[in-house]
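> example.struct
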């Protein structure tokens, strides 16, 4: 590996920007120093994360989607016996692709790297990035150099930094956009990359650009900084500007972004972004990571104070020519076609081709041209497919390709006359999947395949749902086809389950002494209007019954929807109560392990999911029964709070969500001290002494976050709730309940549940 690094370093000398070459050399030195024990692990962890290098979960060479992984140059036996470290096992390399813009040459380099250093598979993320998995850390410098030689960086792809600036993949060709946001997204990317004012964050900072308000391509409502293009007429002239939103984010408890400025001049977006970075760096939380995002600073201060601080900081900034230099050429980088415009040829009865054209081909605002979406199941494609896609892009366009937040590619500037030939070219290399941006186009995070936080197999479930939907895709009603499904392997919403029509996130439950993978069903989210609303979980269902749950939900929608009613409106009109009622049947009459052991494993993973310590004797049986009774009651109260919120009673919804947290805390306390009353003061005191101070409730990855939700709710028990605060508390209450379940399962398996 070192020899390879030296060969490529010598070969690429002089081809990299000097500052980037120096940075990669420095990182290579830091790797060696850390290996020698001369750099603290915490410092090195942030160093590698800021350069896109993650540790990853590794399960003995088998990805949970059933794809055999190459065993790279590391000690597999050592890895399976000990903790996962970046030295003993391969990790993940995240590669920034600003606003998704990429060209054929870059695709070919990615193909080479996937083949030589990874498992020959490249993965597109929901931030339009690429990820390569199973990459050894010793190889990361050579990857960085080879990427830099074609204009790609991994810098600040991870860590407490400004993450990839995302943008609408249809920018410049969308009929509905105000104007092309591409040059503005590119300018912000280059300006903030490595900027000294953006290096002191407690957590990440995510920006995005959207060309319009009605679609979902930019998702401005769920970003720290979201900019939506808009125009206005002044003295008979059209002026460009941006609606600026701040403080959005998904994660465990999502927040919708708030309007910071109704019309910001393009000349101000870079200095204001710089000022926001300075304010976030100075005043954002540093100690408690769960409160360290910008959304919590804005929530604490209020939008008006935040705006005052940002504008005051903006006034102090020294003038920087970069703020406006790019504006002179915003219309000078427009793309152009390779072939003349035309019309789509007849499909001659080819049903699959017709379906692909219907779902994957989108009219451009330029007459005679379309954008074609290459749907990628689970966001994956092979090295050979990357090379083929590069060839196809050159054949039909001038290399105008972008990645999307739905983990796909779009090929822009395709002449309508070439659509049929393009389809056949894609079909020949396995890239002609229909169903872009509809129910078949399921988004899933890596989940238990490679993520250390994964609880349930999001990719495995996505694969199963796709398979079942494909069997009847041509028969699905258009209202069903247009639904969006998004799956996360845990509560962190990397799969964006909060903004799906139907979302799922992984949780765990104990059934008859065995751990069983489950998914919470999330309803009420809205993908359109840039992630216009966030859903809430209504019931946890065993993973193996989620396909049945989806079928029940979609069938009920079809049977009860009003003409032209969208799914979001249907959920609001019907109410979550009736939906939960027919889904709860799937949580009953669960098979025993002896009768159906497959029920106790996850999708695409034949291994048993996990066994809890069943416990023997009447005492243990009574404790389990009482615990389950209390926890079931807490979950019913959380759902009741949702119903109250939907009915407009935010005050009672907030109170009931708080009461549910107290009841769940009491449930876990009672396994050690069964004389605890329901008095909140006593419950909190006992919980703190027995579970928080002893770190029995400490999550290995989230730390004390979920316990802090409880303490914060207790300290603010007398607050008055509005719809937003009640929504947040319901979400936090559900997450606290899930943490109680996890703690209980862990204690049972360790045999330390009672005094």
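> example.seq
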């Amino acid at each position: 590996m070192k020899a390879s690094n030296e060969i490529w370093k010598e070969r690429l000398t002089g081809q990299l920007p000097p500052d980037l070459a120096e940075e990669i050399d420095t990182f290579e030195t830091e790797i060696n120093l850390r290996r020698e024990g001369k750099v603290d692990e915490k410092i090195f962890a942030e160093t590698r994360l800021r350069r896109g290098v993650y540790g990853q979960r590794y399960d003995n060479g088998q990805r949970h989607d059933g794809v055999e992984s190459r065993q790279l140059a590391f000690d597999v036996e050592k890895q399976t016996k000990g903790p996962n470290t970046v030295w003993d096992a391969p990790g993940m390399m995240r590669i920034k692709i600003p606003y998704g813009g990429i060209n054929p040459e870059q695709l070919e380099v990615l193909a080479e790297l996937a083949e030589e250093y990874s498992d020959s598979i490249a993965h597109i993320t929901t931030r339009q990035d690429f990820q390569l998995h199973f990459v050894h850390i010793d190889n990361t410098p050579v990857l960085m150099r080879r990427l830099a030689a074609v204009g790609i960086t991994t810098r600040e792809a991870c860590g407490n930094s400004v993450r990839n600036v995302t943008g609408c993949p249809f920018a410049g060709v969308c009929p509905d956009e105000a104007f092309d946001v591409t040059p503005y997204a590119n300018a912000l990317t280059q300006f903030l990359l490595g900027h000294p004012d953006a290096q002191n964050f407690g957590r990440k900072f995510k920006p995005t650009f959207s060309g319009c308000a009605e679609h979902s391509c930019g998702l401005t409502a769920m970003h720290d900084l979201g900019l939506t293009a808009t125009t206005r007429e002044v003295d008979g002239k059209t002026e460009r500007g941006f609606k600026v939103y701040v403080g959005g984010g998904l994660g465990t408890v999502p927040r919708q972004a708030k309007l910071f400025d109704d019309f910001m001049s393009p000349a101000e977006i870079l200095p204001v972004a710089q000022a926001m970075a300075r304010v976030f760096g100075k005043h954002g939380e540093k100690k408690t990571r769960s409160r360290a995002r910008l959304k919590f600073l804005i929530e604490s201060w209020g939008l008006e104070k935040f705006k005052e601080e940002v504008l005051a900081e903006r006034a102090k900034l020294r003038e920087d020519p970069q703020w406006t230099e790019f504006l002179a050429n915003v219309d000078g980088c427009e793309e152009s076609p390779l072939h003349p415009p035309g019309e789509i040829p007849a499909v001659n009865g080819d049903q699959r081709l017709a379906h692909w054209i219907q779902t994957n081909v989108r009219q451009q605002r330029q007459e005679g041209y379309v954008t074609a979406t290459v749907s990628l199941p689970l966001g994956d494609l092979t090295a050979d497919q990357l090379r083929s896609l590069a060839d196809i892009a050159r054949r039909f366009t001038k290399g105008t390709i972008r990645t999307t937040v739905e983990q796909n590619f779009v090929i822009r500037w395709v002449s309508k006359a070439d659509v049929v030939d393009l389809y056949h070219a894609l079909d020949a290399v396995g890239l002609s999947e229909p169903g872009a941006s509809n129910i078949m186009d399921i988004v899933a995070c890596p989940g238990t395949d490679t993520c250390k936080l994964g609880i349930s197999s999001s990719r495995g479930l996505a694969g199963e749902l796709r398979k079942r939907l494909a069997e009847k895709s041509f028969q699905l009603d258009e209202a069903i086809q247009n639904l969006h499904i998004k799956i996360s392997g845990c509560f962190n919403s990397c799969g964006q389950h909060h903004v799906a029509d139907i979302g799922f996130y992984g949780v765990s439950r104990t059934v008859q002494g065995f751990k069983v993978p489950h998914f919470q069903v999330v309803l009420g989210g809205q993908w359109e209007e840039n992630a216009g609303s966030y859903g809430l979980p209504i019931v946890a269902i065993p993973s193996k019954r989620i396909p049945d749950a989806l079928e029940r939900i979609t069938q009920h929608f079809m049977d009860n929807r009003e003409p032209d009613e969208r799914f979001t409106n249907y959920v609001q009109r019907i109410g979550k109560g009736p939906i939960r009622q027919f889904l709860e049947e799937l949580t009953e009459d669960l098979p025993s392990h002896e009768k159906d052991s497959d029920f106790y494993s996850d999708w695409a993973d034949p291994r048993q999911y996990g066994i809890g310590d069943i416990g023997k004797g009447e005492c243990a049986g009574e404790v389990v029964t009482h615990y389950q009774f209390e926890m079931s009651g807490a979950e019913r109260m959380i759902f009741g709070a949702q119903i109250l919120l939907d009915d407009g009673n935010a005050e009672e919804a907030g109170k009931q969500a708080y009461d549910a947290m107290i009841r769940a805390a009491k449930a876990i306390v009672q396994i050690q001290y069964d004389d605890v009353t329901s008095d909140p003061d006593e419950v909190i005191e006992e919980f703190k002494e027995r579970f928080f101070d002893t770190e029995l409730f400490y999550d290995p990855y989230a730390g004390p976050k979920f316990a802090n939700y409880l303490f914060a709710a207790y300290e603010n028990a007398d607050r008055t709730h509005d719809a937003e605060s009640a929504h947040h508390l319901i979400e936090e209450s559900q997450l606290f309940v899930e943490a109680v379940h996890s703690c209980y399962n862990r204690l049972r398996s360790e045999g330390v549940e009672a005094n």
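> remarks
The longest strand covers residues 225-234.
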